[in-house]
Amino acid sequence: MLIAAGLKGDEILVTSLLGEGWFHSRLLGIVLVEFEICLGCWLVTGWRAEWSRLVALVTFSIFAVATLYKALSGQASCGCFGIYEVNPWWTLMLDGALVGMLFYARADTERPFFFRSSAALVSTFILVVLLCGSTTWWMLNTEAGAIDQDGQLIGDESFVVLEPEDWVNQRLPILPYLDIGKRLENGRWIAVLYKHDCSHCVEMLPQFEQEAIQFAAAGQNEHVALIEMPPYASAEYDPVPSDTVCIRGRLDESREWFAQTPVVMEIDKGVVTKLREHENQ
Under CATH, what is the fold of the domain 148-279? Predict the structure, then answer.
C-alpha cells in the first residue's frame, strides 16, 4: 500500500494535466495518497488492530469494485500504481486475495515489538504527520515540465508532459527531439507515438503496418512513422518487426516524457493536421 501511494504521488505531477473532473483531479489524488500512507502506517504499527483490519477490509473492497469496473470496461491499466500500467484483472486478483485474508484473519492484539511502547507510537504518529505534510506540499507545489508550440521546454525539463490535443494545426513541437524530425518536415505522414510496454500500443501497431503496406502498394506519397518513447525496448521485446515497412523513429531519451499512448497524428510538412482521437486512448 505504501508503494502504491508513492507511485500515485509520482503520477500527481501529471494528473491535473491529463484529465478533467473530480475523478481525475489533483485534489482527489492527493487525498487518496495521504489516506494510503496513513492506513499503511497504521497497519504496520498494529495499534487498534481490529479497527485497522476493518478499515483495510472496506478499503480493499472498494478498490476491488473499482478495479472490476475498469477490467470489465476494457481499460488497459487499473491506475493503482501511478503511471505504470498493470492489467486490472491482475490487480483484481490481488485485491480479492487481500479482501479474503482480511475477512477471515483475526486481528493480533499484541503489537509488534518496536511499537509496544507509547513513546514509539507517538514518534510514529509524528513521523506520519510530517510525511503527509511534506508529500502534500510537494504534490501541490511541484509541476511537471511542458513543451510550447515552438518546441521550447517549460518548467521541469527532466520530466515533460506531452499534450497532443494542443498540437492540431500547429508545427509538431517535438520535432527537435526526434531522430527523424527532419524527415517529418517533408511530405505527409501518419505518426504514432508509442511505448513498447503499452499493451494498447502493441495491439494497434499491426494496423499501422498494414496502412504503410497499402500506401506503398497504391504508390501514395504518404508514409507511416512509428516513434518509440523512452525507455526503449530491447531487441527481444521490440513490438515492431525487424522487416517493417514503416519508418522508425525515437524520442530523445535525455529526459523523461509522459503521454497517454498511443498518440496517432496525421502530419503534413511538419504540421499536425489531425489527431485520431478514437485511437488515442
Answer: Glutaredoxin (3.40.30)
Domain boundaries, the chain: 2-141, 148-279
pTM value surpassing 0.85: no
Question: What are the tens digits of pLDDT across the range 66-119?
Answer: 889 888 887 777 777 776 678 888 988 988 898 888 888 765 555 555 555 676
CA distances from 40 to 3, 104, 167 (A): 9, 19, 41
Determine whether 139 is exposed, middle or buried from the number of CB atoms within 10 Å of its CB (0-12, 13-18, 19+). Answer: buried
Q: Select, from the ranges 30-44, 121-135, 242-256, the one with the highest average predicted confidence (pLDDT).
A: 242-256
Question: What does the mean pLDDT of the chain come to?
Answer: 82
pLDDT at residue 252 greater than cutoff 90: yes
Helix H, strand E, coil C: the string for the chain is: CHHHHHHHHHHHHHHHHHCCCHHHCHHHHHHHHHHHHHHHHHHHHCCCHHHHHHHHHHHHHHHHHHHHHHHHCCCCCCCCCCCCCCCHHHHHHHHHHHHHHHHHCCCCCCCCHHHCCHHHHHHHHHHHHHHHHHHHHHHHHCCCEEECCCCCEECCCCEEECCHHHCCCCECCCHHHECCHHHHCCCEEEEEEECCCCHHHHHHHHHHHHHHHHHHHHCCCEEEEEEECCCCCCHHHCCCCCCCCCEEEEECCCCEEECCCCEEEEEECCEEEEECHHHCC
Q: Within 13 Å and on the Cβ side, how many CA atoms surround 188?
A: 9
pLDDT in tens, 162-213: 889 889 999 999 999 999 999 999 999 999 999 998 888 999 999 999 999 9
